[in-house]
Amino acid sequence: MYKIFKVLLSSILISILFFNVLGTKQTQAATVQDSKMVFLYVGKYSSSSYYPTYTSSDISKFNVNEFVIVPGKEQYSGLVNDINSLVQNIVASKGTSSKIWIGTQLESPTAYDSYTQTDYNNYLSYVNSLQSTLGSNWSYVEGIYMTNEAITNRSIAFDQFQYDSQILFYEWFSDEIHNTYNKDFLWVPYYGYGSSTVDIIRSVGYVANKTNIFDLILLQPHYYFDSTVKSNLNAVYQSTIKQAVTWRDGVIVGGSKDAIANAKIGVQMELDHNARWGNDGGAWIERYNEYVDTFKGLRGNYPISYYAGSRNDACAMSDDINRFFSYGGYFTQ
């Protein structure tokens, strides 16, 4: 009884705090059917270490025009300026065809359990700062990428997700992104693995199949990093062709996808230094090539993105990324 009261109170308080802004969403007409995207890391990954910087020459190595900028986990005052520098390099390389998504600053997962007014203000301040600092290059920004990859409180009953504070926050932030900034909203959750497999799939399915929070959802199979979840490949494939998150057997989570749930669903390809330089590189290559076999038929019809590590890894494997997008080619040494 206390738990039900708590989630209901959370819903009421959020509505009061933000003057019932969860209204009609004014979405963009996103052209994501044939999206070919590469993730680029920027900023600090520890208190004293920065990700290597992408130059415009680096960007030109990728035969794609759409990039997702991912801030490192360390927050610092110069992050927006570093993002702006990367945006400038993308535009210098790709010109007016540039399409850019910019990630939110990472938070501790526990932050999603109890949002405060300050948290909401910080998110808006961050986006405002991006818009102001990027200037005319803001026009190349397709949308904002929610960098958190999972619903934290995912073990609750399916019909209680609507009261979850993290999901309520996503709804509010989504409205701000659409109505205030006229941008789209991207999420890249991981598909189920480990002891919470069922809860992970169920929570991602709720967001994708029952809400209109996101415009684009790219699913991480995770198999590249964990050989025990090979079945995730077909599950992500089924979710993509059905345009609804499914269980591993292909059954749609929640029974059906609601009419309001209009997110385009696609795939996150996964590749990193282990394939080229790892001690057991052959196993990593074999798993990656299984991604190629599973998802190459989706090219041109569904959005596909690449996680390929930070700058040194991604640039070293740009030919492998281009080969996949061009003709569904395998990784080669």
Summarize the structure.
The protein is of the alpha/beta class and 333 residues long. The chain is built from eleven helices and eight strands.
Give an account of the 3D structure.
There is one protein chain. This protein has about 325 residues and is an alpha/beta fold. It has one domain: Phosphoenolpyruvate-binding domains (TIM Barrel), CATH 3.20.20.60. It is about 40% helix and about 15% strand. It contains eleven helices and eight strands. The chain has an eight-stranded parallel beta barrel with strand order 1-2-3-4-5-6-7-8, surrounded by four helices. β5 (about 185), α6 and β6 form a beta-alpha-beta unit. α3 packs across α4. The longest helix has 18 residues, at about 115-135. The radius of gyration is 19 Å and the shape is globular. About 45% of the residues are buried. The model is unreliable at about 1-25 (pLDDT under 50).
List the helices and strands and how they pair.
Layout: H1 2-17, E1 36-42, H2 56-59, E2 66-71, H3 79-94, E3 99-103, H4 117-134, E4 141-146, H5 165-180, E5 184-187, H6 197-210, E6 216-219, H7 231-242, E7 264-270, H8 273-277, H9 281-295, E8 304-307, H10 311-316, H11 318-327
Parallel strand pairs: 1-2, 1-8, 2-3, 3-4, 4-5, 5-6, 6-7, 7-8
Helix pairs in contact: 3-4
List descriptors.
333 residues; alpha/beta; TIM Barrel; 8 strands; globular
> What's the pLDDT, averaged over the residues?
89
How much of the residues is beta strand, in percent? 5-15%
The CATH H-level homologous superfamily = Phosphoenolpyruvate-binding domains
Q: Order of strands side by side in the largest beta sheet?
A: 1-2-3-4-5-6-7-8
What share of the residues lie within helices? 25-40%
